[in-house]
Design a protein that fits this description.
Shape: globular
Pfam families: Porin_4
Strand order of the largest sheet: 1-4-5-6-7-8-9-10-11-13-14-15-16-17-18-19
Radius of gyration: 21 Å
Number of helices: 2
CATH topology: Porin
Distance between the termini: 28 Å
Mean pLDDT: 93
Order of helices and strands: HEEEEEEEEEHEEEEEEEEEE
Keywords: Signal
Organism: Pseudoalteromonas marina
Helix content: under 10%
CATH class: Mainly Beta
Protein name: Porin
Length: 357
């Protein structure tokens, strides 16, 4: 049994007599299909809409409910005097609904402003990282795939959180360190290389700063790490070295004027060249109905290869219940990659219900 499971079970078993246990959850039941697409014939890829890169959730021309449907349960135990423990288990349709621990960490509130945490958490690279799986938390069917393409999205380590204010501005910050060793990385093993691939990100050190005031919210982030990789048990070499260093930079700016809103995010990964992604989205709230548009883009220059793709999406969200939303989205993907085509061009439609409980 993994360390995070033992940690949670030990705390809950020993503390059931005096811990306050809170249980919450979320679920998404989504269906979709490719309306038309080119696929990537040279790699045997049929017309495919890759909706979620980290979990390799892809739709084909056959209607399917499994790629993005999921259910998650979060359990937290308040042990008193500032100490708590949190665990999150998620079962995904793309993994035949096998349940796995996504989060498992202990928190200690030092005072009203500072909290220290240790364990397994979501890697906070992006604005929507912390609630990436909670579809109800954002307006679209999913976080834009071109922007959320990373093969590693969790880490095990320690972080320090701050929450407070400066004048009229709300301020939150997070400094973290740790590593992630994924012995069978799904994106690299199942999709890109199609062979067992172990992906290691170690010596992670990063920080996040968020500022909010009235209709404006800003978030900046930076992380550096060392990458090692093994394919079929053999180390991957880059210029004769078995590791390479990466640096990630991110900026999100959100503007919310009540009914009308604009969301944006811009990211760069410096790793053997630059990998740049961005997204911009706008929508308008008509009471419970919110139509929106979104555009996202991915550009990476490599040695002889260029990975380049973008997505235009239009959709609508209907909050038909205080804890549930019905969404429908049309996506058009253009894959302009040279030799390194990902899934080809596609047009797809998806429909789903997101709930929290």
């Amino acid at each position: 049994m993994k360390l995070q499971k033992l940690m949670l079970l030990g705390v809950f078993i020993s503390g059931t007599s005096y811990a306050e246990i809170n249980i919450s959850g979320f679920a998404s039941i989504n269906a979709g299909k490719v309306l038309s697409g080119s696929g990537v014939p040279q790699y045997g890829v049929e017309p495919t809409f890759l909706a979620d890169y980290p979990n390799v959730s892809g739709y084909t021309e056959d209607l399917s409910f499994s790629p993005e449907s999921l259910i998650g349960i979060q359990v937290s135990g308040d042990l008193g005097e500032g100490l708590s423990v949190t665990g999150q288990i998620v079962a995904r349709g793309v993994n035949d609904f096998d349940a796995n621990f996504e989060w498992a960490y202990i928190s200690y509130e030092i005072n009203d402003n500072w909290t220290v945490q240790a364990g397994k958490k979501r890697l906070p690279l992006f604005y929507y990282s912390d609630f990436f799986d909670v579809g109800y938390a954002y307006v679209w069917m999913r976080a834009p795939a071109d922007n959320y393409t990373w093969q590693v999205f969790n880490y095990e380590g320690i972080n320090l959180l701050y929450s407070g204010s400066i004048g009229e501005w709300g301020v939150s910050a997070n400094v973290y360190a740790g590593k992630e060793d994924d012995d069978d990385n799904k994106l690299l093993s199942d999709f890109f290389f199609q062979e067992p691939t172990r992906e290691i990100w170690e010596d992670m050190l990063g920080g996040v700063l968020s500022l909010s005031h009235d209709w404006l919210e800003l978030r900046v982030t930076h992380m550096q790490y060392t990458n090692k990789r093994f394919r079929s048990g053999e180390p991957v070499l880059w210029d004769g070295k078995d590791s390479r260093d990466g640096k990630f930079y991110g900026l999100a700016a959100n503007f919310d004027f009540g009914d009308f809103f604009v969301l944006s995010e811009l990211n760069r990964l410096d790793l053997d060249g630059n990998l740049d992604t961005y997204m911009i989205s706008a929508g308008y709230r008509f009471d419970a109905i919110t139509p929106y548009v979104m555009f996202s883009d991915f550009e990476q220059e490599g040695e002889g290869d260029t990975e380049s793709h973008n997505t235009f999406a239009v959709g609508v969200r209907w909050d038909f219940h205080p804890s549930a939303a019905l969404k429908m989205q049309y996506d058009r993907v253009k894959d302009d990659s040279f030799e390194l085509a990902v899934a080809g061009d596609s047009k797809a439609i998806t429909l789903g219900v997101d709930v929290v409980f």
